[in-house]
Amino acid sequence: MKIAAILLALPMAALASACATGSSGTAPASDAAAPVAHAKLLAADGSPRGDATVTQATDGLHVLVRAQGLTPGMHAVHIHGTGTCTPPDFTSAGGHWNPTGHKHGKDNPAGMHMGDMPNMIAGADGSGEMEYVIPGGTISGGATPLLDGDGAALVIHAQADDNKTDPAGNAGGRVACGALST
């Protein structure tokens, strides 16, 4: 009986230990005091297209985007430098967030904007999710604040970003936009 109890307790202890150690993924460690910005993503007609959360962590800004209602395939996702999303084309969000003055795209030898992020894949049902860490970014304050005087917005584009063409990666029109706020 004692052996059976021990054999039953070992897997349960291992499971509890695994749950308590946290994740080794890109999500930041839980910190109730960490600054967070949110955005509700909307299409030009005002219909919901998802949400975005940006959380300050020691290694930069952790971005989580959940989208729906997109055409299946690859979509560019960027943070734009103005926190305004006026339909129908969302050009009010301005260009990519670029406080360091670099060129566009991870494949561009001259830079990449801080607002450049990986493409997101929307599945056959039109939904997609992506996580990304923007090294060195801050929600507010410091040399590279996301929410400066004119704010910032998260934008999903109609097509994939080619990761090199300046200034916007040939990503097509803006199909969803959400102004970030705390």
UniProtKB/TrEMBL annotation:
One Pfam family hit:
Sod_Cu
Taxonomically, the superkingdom here is: Bacteria
Domain called Superoxide dismutase copper/zinc binding: residue spans? 50-179
Instruction: Identify the stretch annotated as signal peptide in this record.
Output: 1-20
Keyword list, A-Z: Signal
| Family membership noted in the UniProt record | Belongs to the Cu-Zn superoxide dismutase family.
- Identify this protein by name: Superoxide dismutase
Please report the organism this UniProt entry assigns to the protein: Sphingobium fuliginis (strain ATCC 27551)
